[in-house]
Structures are given as C-alpha cells and as structure tokens.
Design brief:
The complex is a heterotrimer of chains A (320), B (230) and C (504). Chain A has one domain. Chain A is 71% helix and 0% strand. The chains are: A mainly alpha (320), B mainly alpha (230), C mainly alpha (504). At the B-C interface, helix 5, helix 7, helix 8 and helix 9 of B face helix 5, helix 6, helix 8 and helix 9 of C.
Chain lengths: 320, 230, 504
C-alpha cells in the first residue's frame, strides 16, 4: 500500500467537492450556448453557492431536526460515495467498502434524506415533491443495481474496484450485448436519479412539474447551498462512475506512480467533462416528459437492465 | 483483425439488435420506430461486414453491404414514405393525413416492456441446444436473434397501426436473417436472394394494403378491421 | 449419398428435364402472355392450358418415373412421386378454376365492379400463382421451396383483395400479415435445418437439398432438428390453414373471387402441407418418428376441432366452405401423423379429391353469391329449383368433402382409420370421428337448407356463364370418376406413400 494510494480517496473527495459545481456549470453553459445565449459562465454555480453561503440560515417554523439535518446527510452520503468508488484508482484502501450494494444503499440514503427534508416542512409542495421523488427512486435504484450487477457478472465480484479493474484489463469486454443494454439503462437512470431532463427540469419552478426543486423549496441560505452542492456532487460521482465502468482507460492501478495518479485524475476529469457536455447538449433537444410517462421510461430502463443481467448470466454460464 | 476487436464488434452489433428491438417496444412515434428499424438494419449489416473483414472475405462483405442497402436504407425508406406522404393526392376521394403516433395501445407500455423481458428470457432458454452444439462468437449471439424474432411478433400482436405491424414484421425478419448469419455465415445465395426479394415484396404489398386500409377505413388503425367475423 | 439413388438420377436426368421445367415455364409464359395480350378471354384460356400442361406433366412424370427422384436444371428442380401427385392436383384444380375466370371476370365487368387495370392484374396473377405453386412442389432445395411458398402469399394478396371494398381489403391485410409471420417462422426452421446440416459436415452449397438431407439425416443434431421441425410445422402449417395460424383462412376464402378461392382451398393449402410432408422423412430419420407424429396429431386434431365448432355456428356459406377445408386439412395432418404407407397414400388421394370437390363447390357458391349479392346462408333458399347445374354441383361438392360414399374421401378416411387402429391410435380415431360427424351434420343441414325448399317468388335467378358451366360439368365428372377408381394414379399414390413413410 503506497502513500499515493492512501491519498487517492482524499483526492477523489476533494476533486468531487470542487469539481461538482463546475460540472453543473458546464451543462448550463452548453445549454445556453446551444440556445443562442451567452450564458453565465462555467463558474456561475460556484458564485451562487458563495452567495447562498453568505446568507443567514433560516429555519421555517414547525420544522424539526430532520429539516436541518437533511442537507448534511445528502451531502455526506454523496461525499462518502465519492471517497469509496474507484474514480482515480482501483487500488485504494477504502476499496473494500466500494461494494455495489453499499453504493446503491448510500445513494438511497441521500434520496430518502432529501424526501424527508421536503416532507418535514409540511407544505404541499414538499410533500408532492417527496412523493414524486420516491416514486422515481423506487424504480431507479433497482435499475442501477441491476445494470451494474450485469457488468459485475463477468468480473465475478460485486466490488466496483474489481469490476473496473477487470474492464481496464480487458477493455473490449464491455462491448457486448449486456454491456450495450446496461449502458443505456444506466444512462437513463442516472438522468432520472439526478433530476435532469427529460425526467425533471432543474431550471424551473413550475409547480406542476417540479420534483427535485419542490423538495428543497423551503430551504434557503447555507442549507440551500449544501443541497445544491450535494445534488451536483451526486451527478458528478454517477457520471464518473459511468465513465469508469465503460471506459476505464488510464485509471491508476496498483503499480502506478505519482505520474499515473496525476494522469488518472486528469483523465477522469476530462471524461466527466465530456459526458457533461454531451448530456447538456442532449438536454437542449428533449422536452420534459409528462409525469405519468416517467414511470414508463424508468420501467423501460429497468427492463433493459434486467435483460442485461439475463444475457450476462447466460454468457457467463455458456463460457464457464 | 484482432480477435478481441472481432468479438467486440460482433457483440456490439448483436447488442444493438436487441437494444433497438426493445426501444421499438418502448417508443410510440411511428417515425421514431422506423428510424430504430433503420438502426437495427445497420446493426444487422454490421454482422457480416465485421465477419468479412475478420476473415478477409470479400463475398461476405458484399452480402453485408447488400443487407445494409436493403434493410438499413430501402425498407425504412419505403415505410417512411407511408408516414410522410399526405395521402393519395392525385386520385381517390380520401385525402388522409397519415398518423404520426401509435393509437391507444392494446397493452400499456410498461406491461409491453415486461412481456419483452419475459420473451427475451424465453429466447435464451429455447436456444440452449443451439449454443451447446456450437459455441462460437457468432452462435453465442443467436439467443439475441431469437429474442428479436419474438419481440417482432409481440409488436405485431400488440400494435394497431398498419405501419407498426409492418415494423414488427421487419424486425421478425431481421431476427431471422441475423440468426441465419450468426449460425452459418448465411444461407446459400439462392435462398438468401429469394428471401430478400420476398421480404421486399411483402413490405411493398403491406405498404400498398396499408394505403387501401387507410382509404377505405379512414384510418390506419387495423384494430378497426372488424367487418369479417364468424 | 447412396450409390443406388445416384445411379437412379443418371438414368432419368436426360429425359425428365422437359417434364420438370414445363410445369414452371408454362404458367410463367402464360403470365407473360397475359401481360402483353389484351384479350382477357384468350388470356384465361391460355392460363387454363398452362394448368392443363402442369397436370399432364404430373401424369407423365407418374408414368415415366424411375426408381429415384429426377433432377433438372443443375439440381434446382426435382421430381418424385409426391411432386407428380401435387402437379396433378395443381393441374386438375387449376385448369377449371382458370377457365372459370372467364365467366367471373365477365360478370364483374358487366356489374361494373372492376376496372380494366384490375382485370389485367387478375389475368397476370392467376398464372403466376400457378407457377409459384408448381415451383414449390418441384424444388429440390428446401430454401427454394420456402421462397416459392412465400411468393404465393405475395401473389395471392392482390387476388384476395381483388374485389375491392372494405371487407376485401381487410381480408387481404389479415391474410398477408398472418401468412407472412407464419412463413417467416418456417424460414427460421429452414435456417436451423441448414445449420444442423452444415454442422454435420454437409458442404454448404448442398446443405438444403432434400436428397442430401435424406442421405445424411441420421447425422443431423436431433435437438436442433426438433426445434426446426416444430417451427416448420407451425410455419408451413400456416399456409395449410392449420392451427394456430389458421385465422386468415375463412376471411380470405370468403372475400377472394370464386376461382381464386377454389385455387387457394383446393391447391394452396395442399401445397403448404406438402412442404411439411417433404421434410417429414428427414425429421423422422433424425429425431425418431414419435416427435413429428405427436406434433401433427396435436395440430391436426386441434384444426379439426376448431373447424367443426366453427361450422356449427356458421351463417355464411363461403366461410362454411373455408372451415370445411380446414377440417379436411386437419384430417390430412392426422393421416400424415399416422405415417404408414397406406395412410399417406390415402391422404394424397384425399388431397386430390378435396381439391376437385372444392373447385366445384366454390365455383357454384360464387354463382349463388353473385345472384344474391350476399353469402349469408339465411338469405338463400331453393337453389336446386332455380338452377339444376349449380344446385347439383353444390350437392356433389359437399358430398365429396364430407366423405360420403362413393366419393373418394370416404375411401381415404376409411383407409386412414384402419391405419390409425393399426398403429394403436384407435382412441384418437374415436375423437376424430366424433368431430367429423359434428362437421358432417353442420354442413349437411345447412346445405339442405340452401338447396332444397321452395324459392321465394322474389328470389333472383341464378345465371351461369357458359365457361363456368363447362368447368362445373367437368368438375362433377372428375369427382365421380375419382370416387369410382383412382385409375392410373393408384400406383402413384402407393409409391408416394412408401417413399414418404420412409419405407423406401
């Protein structure tokens, strides 16, 4: 275990912490440019965060400790995922924790905390948003589980580090029937999970369509900043994970030196940036789905994930 | 060609075949369905092209290019005309505007997708003896072909627009062609030629009949064909 | 390939080529002629002549047949006893049906139901249809046979929809969709046979040849062939009107022009079933006889059952005839399942007799329908009193298809029944017999209603064009003749039975 490997989780956390608002900024900027606007610049989310952080913390009357703690739990779960999943290296000391089921569980903790925070205010919007958010999560989380599970079958382990290392060792294995199905399923579900178009529109406060925004409607000041930051981090971590599951080129292994780590860090940042560019570009062209069509979309991605698992286990058994 | 690259190419093509089939079940816009069918045609053509490049066989590549032309371009174009054309403009009393979306589905999207999943699992179960007999890169993907065949039949059974049923039929046929290719690198030329011509003609016939249905019934919803019954 | 059969080819190749090529070439020439020539009566006569040529070639093949199959055109065409029988069937149904086309088109033109373009299309499509069927039964390659059978679907699509109008378009749509799916399933089966053959070391270029497959049948993988045979029974069964893809049959038969209905019911169904008979020996050798027997028994009995039940509730006489065809094909499938030489010879006899009976039936039903403008059973009374010929034809046709003695199907059903008890399927015979009695009762009671009784004073007269009268008279005579004796065809049926039962 090298010192570098010990540093890796810290680097991942720091990178996600600092980079997440920029990812959100990139997506907004791409969108603005494609729509013919100048845009506020990539760093605008950072400026927003600074503004919110300077404000006074407000606690609506009648709310409990759940309301106050929710942002911290959401942000904490996102950071914990950032620390344990293999982003820069497959060989970190926390790698043992990076089990598929643990990661999905952490994601769910964040989602539930967000919904509880929305519910705790007792307003109509909070409750509505929470109900919608949980409906989506109930379909989205199993899909993430299944699609990563499909990729884990060839590797023979549910540890994300092992899966990514196996793919890095033999990059062609993801180009397969289960790989193609799992990729589409995972992409769809990440979009849903992080509240992007066409499932939810992050830039609107229209009451009938809100999901994520409805849950954090009562938040203001530093807590709102934390909420926004956390949701950007979730997006960033999931995109990075997607990138590494399917294109783990350049990820640092056991024997990589400082240069390898540096390269891996730059590469993962670049991959996430590219994904953000693509997603931001796509968002210009799609309209938000009507709410009752969203379960159809998610059911579709769930079926794709299920098929990915089926085909994957078929191939695993046919080869073995 | 590198063996890994060959395997990856074949697998990606097979994966795309299945993926487009599932997406056709998912989507209800007719134009989107035709586009997905075109994508499936391209994926189907990729199988012989990759195989031909790997084995340096110009003949197989030629078959692939022919499939690409027929399934990726010609047949989708025939169907697109049905979506795009504004009725028989020159003659005939009925001036119909083609439907753009699938009408109220017989089976809801979520349930259809569930059925698709079940059919795919069935396909994998049924094809065990084939894969057991010959475990090559190609025949490993045969279950995918069978799944596409079953999904094609499902689309024909659960969709009500004439065009969607035609798309289902062509998916069924894409599945069979891919099975033929994956198992045996293609059936003899005379059979392949006959089959392709037949598919082309059936598509043209279905297109013509779809227009007649539209002209006589005022809609391309074949669920309205209820005159004949016992 | 066995040396004995190879020697057989050698002796036959030279003199058989003309007999093999002509059944395909004659109707093609007739179709080309119809595309060029504008005299529609002449066109119909040429098509009938082409059909006669097909039948004559079948008879000559039956007489000049050697021990083994005859090959022509570099092994593309192949003739054996089954081919000869099927060519005779095509000819004997095709000639009167094509000839009756003269009268049918005259009536349509007179009634203003059709356009010159449609008339020409009809003239071209009927011989093309004959050509496709002749190709299907004389193909040496299962793949070519498949393509020819699929071609019949394409050609007949427009014939089914020929009368135009909502009902005809609906029937055509359902027909094309259902048959295309069915036949696509059969293609999948063909592909699997090819796969099994290539895997057994047969060179790819010959892997679908019937003779090659027969010679190497025991080397084919049984598991794969089982899947393939199941798919082919379902797929080709769709064209034969067997369950589960039978739903097109009543719609198409009731909407198609009468001569086309006769061709479809009398020949097309049989051609579809002959494809099953073609692959049966190969499958039996590869996976054992029990598999296909079970499959055909299930499919055949289900078909008879569905047909009998539908006959009970039938209110339309053309649909009634369609379900009677289904019943007959179901009985034929059961006979194929029994699979003894006697049963197969009997089923081929039934195919021929049923074809001729249905020709007479559909042509006379067409006249009744065009007189009344409707095909509802309730609307028709006292046909016999208004037209002796049409009434007598209908009566004879029904008597043929419900297996009344002395007509041929009676004898064939008895022979199949005997074979069933021989192979220990007596209890199934009881089931089938019950269903056939139900069908008989339903058909007979409705026929009596249509034919007998006092016609209402307002009932329209039934006019019969001379061409259709001639076709009817010839058809009745042929039905009677075949019932009395199979004549020179008896030996042919026996040989075909021995061949397809795998005895030889």
């Amino acid at each position: 275990m090298t010192v570098l490997a010990m540093v890796a989780p810290a680097a991942q956390v720091a990178g996600v912490l600092l980079g997440a608002p920029l990812v959100a900024g990139v997506m907004r900027q791409v969108r603005a440019r494609l729509e013919g606007r100048v845009g506020a610049g990539v760093a605008q989310p950072w400026r927003d965060l600074r503004k919110h952080l300077r404000k006074q913390a407000m606690t609506p009357s009648g709310t409990t400790v759940v309301f106050s703690l929710a942002p911290a739990v959401v942000a904490g779960s996102a950071l914990l995922i950032a620390a344990i999943v293999p982003l820069v290296t497959t060989f970190s000391p926390l790698d043992r924790m990076a089990d598929l089921f643990a990661v999905v569980g952490l994601l769910l903790i964040g989602t539930v905390a967000l919904a509880l925070g929305g519910l705790d205010t007792g307003t109509a919007f909070g409750g509505m948003g929470a109900s919608r958010g949980i409906t989506i999560a109930a379909l989205a989380e199993p899909t993430i589980l299944l699609s990563v599970f499909a990729l884990s079958l060839p590797a023979g382990s549910s540890n994300l580090g092992v899966i990514v290392a196996a793919t890095a060792h033999d990059p062609w294995t993801v180009l397969s029937v289960p790989g193609a199905l799992a990729f589409v399923a995972l992409l769809t579900v990440i979009v849903a999970e992080t509240g992007r178009l066409p499932v939810d529109n992050p830039s609107t406060h229209l009451e009938l369509t809100m999901i994520h925004e409805a849950m954090e409607l009562e938040y203001a000041g530093p807590r709102l900043a934390l909420m926004e930051w956390a949701s950007a981090m979730r997006l960033t971590v999931l995109l990075a994970l997607l990138a590494n599951l399917f294109a783990p080129w350049g990820i640092a292994g056991a024997g990589s030196g400082a240069g390898g780590f540096l390269l891996a860090t730059v590469l993962i940042a670049a991959k996430v940036a590219v994904l953000a560019l693509i997603l931001g570009g796509i968002e210009v062209f799609v309209a938000k789905l009507r709410l009752f069509r969203v379960p159809e979309l998610l059911a579709g991605s769930f079926v794709l994930a299920l098929l990915a698992v089926t085909t994957s286990s078929f191939f695993a058994s046919a080869v073995g | 060609m590198n063996q890994d690259l060959y395997t990856a190419g074949m697998n990606t093509a097979a994966g795309t075949l299945l993926l487009t089939a599932v997406l056709v079940v998912w989507r209800r816009e007719l134009r989107a369905m035709v586009m997905l069918l075109a994508c499936q045609g391209v994926a189907l053509a990729a199988l012989p092209i990759v195989d031909g490049i790997a084995h340096a066989s110009a003949e197989v590549i030629g078959v692939g290019v022919a499939i690409l032309a027929l399934r990726g371009v010609v047949l989708p174009a025939v169907l697109l005309r049905l979506v795009a054309r504004r009725g028989p403009a020159r003659r005939g009393p009925a001036r119909w505007v083609p439907a753009r979306r699938e009408s109220a589905p017989v089976v809801g999207t979520s349930l259809s997708l569930l059925i698709t999943a079940l059919l795919t699992v069935t396909a994998f179960a049924v094809t065990r003896p084939i894969v057991r007999l010959q475990a090559t890169v190609g025949s490993m993907a045969v279950p995918v072909s069978f799944a596409v065949i079953l999904i094609g039949i499902q689309v024909m059974a659960t969709r009500r627009r004439a065009l969607s049923q035609t798309v289902g039929f062509l998916m069924l046929d894409n599945g069979i062609t891919s099975a033929a290719f994956l198992l045996t690198s293609g059936v003899p030329l005379v059979v392949e030629l006959g089959a392709s011509l037949d598919v082309l003609f059936v598509t043209l016939v279905l297109g013509l009949l779809a227009r007649q249905v539209q002209a006589h019934f005022g809609d391309s919803d074949v669920g309205r064909l209820r005159e004949l019954r016992d | 390939m066995g040396t004995a059969t190879s020697a057989g080819y050698g002796s036959c190749v030279t003199d058989m080529t003309a007999l093999l090529v002509l059944p395909v070439a004659a109707p093609v020439a007739a179709a080309v002629f119809a595309a060029v020539c504008r005299n529609r009566r002449l066109n119909a006569a040429v098509a009938a002549a082409a059909a006669l040529a097909i039948g004559a070639c079948g008879l000559l093949l039956a007489v000049a047949r050697g021990d083994g199959p005859a090959l022509a055109l570099g092994g593309l065409l192949r003739a054996d006893a089954l081919t000869a029988v099927m060519l005779v069937v095509i000819g004997s149904v095709g000639a009167p049906a094509a000839w009756a086309g003269i009268g049918y088109v005259d009536q349509e033109v007179a009634a203003g139901h059709t356009t010159p373009r449609r008339v020409r299309l009809y003239g071209v499509l009927v011989p093309t249809f004959l050509a496709a069927m002749a190709t299907a039964v004389s193909a040496a390659n299962i793949g070519v046979m498949w393509a020819a059978i699929e071609a019949t679907t394409i050609v007949t699509a427009f014939l089914v929809g020929h009368r135009g109008g909502r009902a005809a378009v609906e029937a055509a749509w359902k027909y094309v969709v259902i048959c295309s799916v069915g036949i696509a399933v059969a293609l999948l089966g063909t592909v699997l046979v090819y796969f099994a053959a290539v895997h057994a070391g047969i060179p790819a270029s010959r892997a679908l040849d019937i003779d090659t497959l027969l010679a190497h049948a025991t080397a084919l993988d049984p598991a794969v062939l089982r899947v393939a045979a199941g798919l082919m029974v379902i797929g080709f069964g769709a064209k034969a009107g067997l369950v589960p893809f039978h739903t097109w049959l009543a719609d198409a038969h009731s909407q198609a022009p009468a001569p086309v209905s006769a061709l479809m019911s009398g020949v097309l169904l049989a051609v579809g079933f002959s494809a099953v008979l073609r692959v049966k020996p190969v499958v039996d050798l590869a996976v054992g006889g029990g598999y296909l027997r079970t499959a055909l028994l299930v499919v055949g009995l289900a078909t008879v059952a569905v047909a009998a039940l539908m006959l009970l509730v039938q209110r339309d006489f053309k649909r009634m005839l369609a379900y009677s065809s289904m019943e007959n094909l179901g009985v034929i499938a059961v006979a194929a399942a029994v699979g003894t030489p006697l049963a197969i010879a009997a089923l081929l006899w039934q195919v021929l007799a049923h074809g001729m009976g249905k020709t007479v039936l559909f042509l006379s039903a067409g006249q009744i329908q065009s007189a009344h403008g409707s095909s509802a059973i309730a609307a028709v009374r006292g046909v016999l009193a208004r037209s002796r010929l049409v009434g007598a034809s209908f009566a004879v046709g029904i008597a043929v298809v419900v297996a009344v003695p002395p007509f041929a199907i009676f004898g064939s059903v008895i022979a199949v029944g005997r074979s069933m008890t021989e192979v220990g399927l007596g209890w199934l015979l009881a089931v089938q017999g019950t269903l056939m009695v139900v069908a008989f009762a339903a058909l007979a009671s409705r026929t009596v209603g249509i034919l007998l009784g006092e016609p209402e004073p307002s009932a329209p007269a039934i006019m019969t064009p001379r061409s259709i009268s001639l076709a009817l008279v010839i058809g009745i005579a042929a039905c009677l003749a075949l019932g009395l004796s199979a004549g020179p065809l008896a030996g042919l049926f026996r040989d075909a039975g021995l061949m397809l039962a795998g005895v030889r």
